[in-house]
Amino acid sequence: MDPPPTTASATPSDDELIAAARAAQERAHSPYSGVRVGAALVADDGRVFTGCNVENASLGLTMCAERTALGRAVSEGARAFRACVISTDRARPLFPCGACRQALREFGRTLRILCVGAGGARVERTLEEMLPDSFGPEDLDGGG
Predict the structure, then answer these.
(1) pTM
(2) Domain that holds residue 86
C-alpha cells in the first residue's frame, strides 16, 4: 500500500541544510581517501534526507554521500527534489562526481546544488549547469 500523500512544506534554510550535511559528514567512513563528505537532499515535500560517503577496500563499491542520501530518499518514497547540499572537510567546496550527477539526474534536471567547503566557502549551481545535455528517463522509449 502506498503511503498517504504528504502536504508541501517550506524548504529548510541553507544554514539548516548545511548543518544537516555537516552532521552526516561527521559519520563518514573514509579510511582510504581521508575525505569526509556529507549530503542533505530536500524532497519536494520538505523532507530532508542525509547521507555520508562510505568507502570500501574494493574502491568501486564506495558509496558517495549524494547517492547514499538519494537511496534513503527513494526508499522512503521521495521521487522529486528541490535541493542538495554537499559539505566536505576540505577547504574548498567539492562538486558531485559524474556518477552522482547522473544518479540525481534520474529525478530531474533543475535540482539546486550547493557545495560547501570546511571554511564556509559556497558554490551553487543547478544540476543542468553541472551536467548539460544529459541523458535521462525521457530519452528511453516509454520514459518520463
Answers:
(1) 0.90
(2) 14-133
